[in-house]
Amino acid sequence: MADEEQPKETTANETAGSEEDKAPAQPPAPASSGMNTVVVIAVGLAVMIVTPLLSFLVNSRMGSTPIEADLKKTETGETTTFPMDEIRVNILGTKATRYVVMKPHLVLSDAKLQEDLLALKPLLADRVSTTISRRTLDELEGPEARVSLRRDIMNEVNAAIRNRMKGAVVDVYLVDYLIQ
């Protein structure tokens, strides 16, 4: 009986060790993460360099827009002004206690445009007064208020006449500008 082997009892530690041996080994982490960073940086730099070049090439081939062409006419002195009637508008946020009085003059790219605008004078007055009425007192009195207002009036009037006639408003003069 001494020669007979008795069944060996396994302990918990031996069982855990044998299961770990059976589990598949995980592959080591890739060592090329530094290479991925270099590739990302290279692609980013390429995009940053190519994008402005493509933009420049596309813009230079397209030529100037109609308004840019009209602005070139103003530089050579080929402009006409179109005086509008005095406009009074309540200022936004003042509960009709404050108002703006102004007399805009539109600088036109073409003298022929002046005749066409006479028929649209009520529409133009509406567009100008609507543009002014969207502004608060602070927006009308600030240091850049007049410049911003002139630009917005020019954009609104050009949007109104864009499909109706040839030419554009290239600038706006605010001859009288009074806030009461």
Comma- or semicolon-separated keywords:
Tetrahydropterin Synthase, Chain A; alpha+beta; 180 residues; 16% strand; four-stranded antiparallel beta sheet; 4 strands; single chain
Mean pLDDT: 79
Count of helix runs = 7
Given as residue ranges, the uncertain stretches (5+ residues, pLDDT < 50) are: none
SSE ordering: HHHEEEHHHHE
Shape: elongated
Strand content: 15-25%
Architecture of the domain at 72-179, CATH level 2? 2-Layer Sandwich
Q: Which fold name corresponds to the CATH topology of the domain at 72-179?
A: Tetrahydropterin Synthase, Chain A
Q: Which structural class do the helices and strands define?
A: alpha+beta
Q: For the terminal residues, how far apart are their CA atoms?
A: 121 Å
Any idea what the radius of gyration is?
A: 37 Å
Number of strands: 4
Largest sheet: 4 strands, antiparallel
- The helix content is 40-55%
Q: In the CATH hierarchy, what is the class of the domain at 72-179?
A: Alpha Beta
CATH homologous superfamily of the domain at 72-179? Band 7 domain
